[in-house]
Structure formats: C-alpha cells, structure tokens
Design goal:
Shape: globular
Structural class: mainly alpha
Strand content: under 5%
Helix content: 40-55%
Number of helices: 8
Mean pLDDT: 81
Length: 243
C-alpha cells in the first residue's frame, strides 16, 4: 500500500493530456532500418540546333569538304565561279561554330588561303596551270581556286586529325593526292595543263609534258602539307569539336 513504511511516497502521476511513449512498431522500425533507394536522374542531353550538328561529326566534315570541292569545280565549268566560294564559306562557318578553338581555326584558314594564293599563282605563272576565268589583282588564279585551300584546311582538325604530328606521312600524301586532285579539275574542265603543246608527241608512250606538270604540283603540295600540319598543331592545340 502507498503511504506505509515500505512505500512512503506514491508513484508520480502523469498529466492528464500526456500519453506515455509507445515502443516503435516493427513496421516503422523496418522502414528506418531499410536502406533508402536513390533513383538517379537521367542525364538530359544538350539539344543543339540541327544545322550545328550537321558539321560536328568527322564524316560530315569530310562530306562538306568534298561538296565544296565539287561545287567549286562545277561552278567554274558552268560559268558560275562564285558558287564554290559561297558553299565553302557556308560550311566553314558551321565548322567554326563547332570548333574548340575557333580563333586558331580562323588563323589556319586564312594562312592556307594565303599559301594557295602564292603557290598556285607561282606555278600558274610558270605555265603549269591555266584557268578560264578572268583574274584580278594582277594574279593569274581565280577566287574559287584560292578557296580550295581553306576548304581542305578545314579538315585538318576533324576528319583528317589523325595526320597531326605525322609530317613525313603528310608530305607523302601531299605529293600523291595533290596532283590527282588537280587532275580531277582537268577532267572536270575547270583547269588546263598547257605545258603539253599540241604538236608534242608522246615519247615511248609517255606524255612527259603532262607528268612534268604533275611532278611540279606534287612538289608544291609536298612542301605545303607539313607547313599546314605544323600551323594546325601550333594554333589549334586540341583537335575536335566543342562539347
């Protein structure tokens, strides 16, 4: 009994509004102990304009280079010499939008145009090449031929970036592929090789005049390719497209 000698004080009585805390149920304890599963959010891919992605992939880069090449030759043959420069400037604009180092690319394109203006002008003065269009600035090559050089330089840091640092291979490729690209212009009717006079007869079945012109063009591009690769590595330290 409360109040006797054995229990002098009664137990405390809880207030009327309070209820004793109950032990957590097994279901609540299971919810606390179970590990929380975190569902990762799906990474949202950046949406870029379609006209920008048309120039980003290396295959697209090579396609536009070839398209500019064909447009320049076709425009010259069809008496529309401005067609090639317009197409080349258009696709190079998309190329610069995607480039990681656009200012370096711009310097490379301008330097390549200057090289083509000088080198092709020299061999044209030598009589190796002949164009149908009237020339300006007292120099014998038309604008579409000058634009062929930045048209190619736009591939050095994209579809042709595997040539970076391989100067010997670039020299060999320039000496072989350069003359054949000019030969394509001859077959297209956009440029002539006037070194072969009408009265010249092949000796031992070989047109030595024609192959002499091919050798001169091969030497030109064997010198130009390593210079372009060196400028590309210097001005564009990291090839590729903008992330």
């Amino acid at each position: 009994m409360y109040g006797d000698s054995l229990n002098p004080t009664p137990p405390p009585i809880a207030p009327a509004g309070d209820t004793p805390p109950s032990a957590p149920s097994s279901e609540a304890q299971r919810r606390v102990d179970s590990p929380q599963v975190v569902i990762p959010h799906a990474r949202v891919k950046e949406l870029r304009p379609l006209w920008v992605t048309w120039f980003a992939h290396p295959f697209a880069n090579w396609f536009w280079f070839y398209f500019g090449f064909v447009a320049a030759l076709s425009g010259s043959n069809m008496k529309y010499p401005s067609l090639g420069p317009v197409v080349i400037v258009g696709w190079l604009t998309g190329h610069l939008v995607n480039a990681k180092h656009p200012w370096g690319e711009i310097k490379l394109l301008l330097a390549s145009a200057g090289m083509g203006y000088v080198l092709d002008g020299i061999i044209t003065r030598m009589g190796v090449l002949k164009f149908h269009e009237p020339t300006t600035w007292w120099w014998p090559i038309p604008l579409w031929m000058v634009m062929m050089w930045p048209n190619f330089a736009g591939t050095l840091n994209s579809s042709m970036k595997w040539l970076r640092g391989r100067y010997k291979l670039g020299t060999i490729m320039g000496a072989i592929a350069g003359p054949f690209s000019y030969y394509g212009g001859v077959k297209w009717g956009s440029v002539e090789l006037p070194w072969s006079p009408p009265s010249a007869m092949p000796v031992l079945g070989i047109d030595w005049w024609f192959w002499g012109a091919m050798i001169v063009i091969g030497i030109e591009w064997a010198l130009a390719m390593p210079v372009l690769l060196w400028l590309s590595a210097r001005w564009v330290p990291e090839a590729g497209v903008r992330g």
